[in-house]
Amino acid sequence: MGWKLKFATTAIIAVAAGVYINNTSLLAPHQGGKPVLLAHRGMAQRFDERDVKNDTCTAARMLPPTHDYLDNTIPSMRAGFDAGADVVEIDVHPTIDGEFAVFHDWTLDCRTDGHGVTREQSMAKLKMLDIGYGYTADGGKTFPFRGKGIGMMPTLSEVLATFPDKKLLINVKSRDPNEGETLAGVLNALPAERSRAVMVYGGDEPIEAIRRLTPDVRTISRAAIRSCLIRYIGYGWTGLVPAACRNAMVLVPINAAPWLWGWPDRFLARMNGVNSAVFVLGPYSGGEFPTGIDTPEAFAQLPQDYSGGVWTNEIEAIAKIAGKVAGTSRD
Question: How far apart are CA 160 and CA 157, in angstroms?
Answer without folding.
Answer: 5
